[in-house]
Every structure is written in C-alpha cells, then in structure tokens.
Specification:
It is built from 8 helices and 7 strands, in the order βαβαβαβαβαααβαβ. By secondary structure, the chain is an alpha/beta fold.
Length: about 240
C-alpha cells in the first residue's frame, strides 16, 4: 500500500544488534532498548558501518521502561530475547513491556532451557553444577537429599546474577501470565551444542544437522532439551490471521 508505514520493531535487551541490524537491513525501523551503554555503543558503530542510521534508534533503559520510552501501542513486534532470565520479576517486567505493542502485535520471547543446562553439565562430568541447575528453582522441600542449594561449589561461576532457566511449560505460563496469547513454542539448538566439532567436517554435515534441528524444534521430548526455548505470542485484541 502506497504511504503505509513500515512495521516498528522494538528489541528489548538488544545489546550490540545481533537481531536489530539484520532486521534494519531488511528495511524495518528498529528501536533497541538496553541497559548497557557499552553494548549500545557497539550497536551504534555497527549501524554506522552498515549505513543504517536512519532505521535503528538506540536508547538506554530496562525492560520495564519500554512503554514509557517508545509509547503505548506503538510497536508491531517486540523481541525479548535472553532477558527474562536475569530480571528481578520476569512476569511483571514482561507484562509492563507488553504495553508497547499494538493490539494483536507480535511477541518473540527466548529463554534458556532448564533441561539443556542440566544435561550439558552432566555430560561434561560437572555433576554438582548439573544438580545446582536442576534444583535452582525447586522449593526446599522438593530438593533431593544432600543437595546444597547455597553452596558456591555447586554453582557454576557467573558474573552477577545466576540466570534463571525454564521448562517449556514454565516459559509458556510466564508469557500467558504476563498477558500474551501464545501461538507456538519451539526449541533452539536441541542437538547443536551437544555435537562435537569433529562430527561436522563440512557444509553438508552442517546442513544435515540443521534439517534435524528444524524437524525436532516443535516436537517433544526433543523440544524440552533445547538450549533455548522460543515462544511466539501476540498481544490480545488483534484481528489478524492468528486472532481467535
């Protein structure tokens, strides 16, 4: 349609532009909101190098600041990738962030998968770290006997806050409780992080692994083993093809 505006994408926690830059290069305006000035400085350099200055806006702020920064009901797509693992109250923060979407606007949430974290540590022989990841969010009464939840030896080294990890059901429940209408869930990197590099000697092997990943992405029990869980949802009130 002549004169129709381009859909606006808001990338919460978009950092140095891993998603924002390709989206802008495809012709869409993107607003990146991130608390890190260093990450935003790197984003601005990438944007300048690729001549995308008119399409990417970078603003320092947190997930809860989105609606105040961008405005209520202004965005067509909200990306919230690898953010909910580290905010203090993910449900409340996401609920506030959803205010930035127009009715029926799309939401893309990516969170770390619990099963993958436990499995990877166990396969590496890091049994205490695997146990710590497993019981991280368990109520004390449900934790296995002998699990020292507070022991620094049982926790993986981390700078700052230890990230949360989610099961598929927890990720879906989080988005729904925040007010999003879940459309689909799939796993990202189900096998890739477990396959040794020597098993991928050439491009053909890599393509075969990719086909396997895509085939398993939406199927249980494989989806539950993904390093990341990708939840696609929408803001209530839309009249588009996914509206009920």
């Amino acid at each position: 349609m002549v004169g129709a505006r381009r859909p606006l994408v808001v990338d919460a926690g978009g950092g140095s532009g891993g998603f924002a830059v390709p989206i802008a290069a495809a012709g869409y305006p993107v607003v990146v909101v991130d608390p890190s000035p260093d990450a935003l400085a790197a984003l601005r350099r990438r944007v300048a190098e690729q001549g995308l200055g008119g399409r990417v806006t970078s603003i320092q702020g947190d997930l809860r600041d989105l609606t105040g920064i961008v405005g209520a009901g202004q965005a067509d797509l909200l990306l919230c990738h690898s953010v909910l693992e580290i905010v203090d109250d993910p449900q409340s923060a996401l609920a506030q962030a959803l205010g930035v979407l127009r009715p029926g606007g799309a939401l893309s949430v990516v969170v770390a998968g619990l099963a993958a974290a436990v499995l990877a540590r166990a396969l590496a022989g890091q049994f205490e770290a695997a146990l710590a990841a497993l019981v991280e969010d368990m109520p004390p009464a449900h934790r296995p006997s002998g699990a020292d939840h507070s022991s620094s030896a049982a926790r993986e080294p981390a700078v700052g806050r230890v990230p949360r990890r989610f099961t598929t059901a927890e990720a879906v429940a989080l988005v729904q409780a925040a007010g999003g209408e879940v459309l689909d869930v799939h796993g990202v990197r189900i096998f890739a992080d477990l396959v040794p590099g020597e098993r991928l000697p050439d491009a053909l092997a890599t393509r075969r692994l990719l086909r396997l990943e895509l085939a398993a992405a939406g199927r249980e029990p494989f989806r539950a083993l993904a390093a990341q869980l990708h939840v696609l949802a929408r803001s209530p009130g839309g009249t588009g093809p996914h509206a009920r």
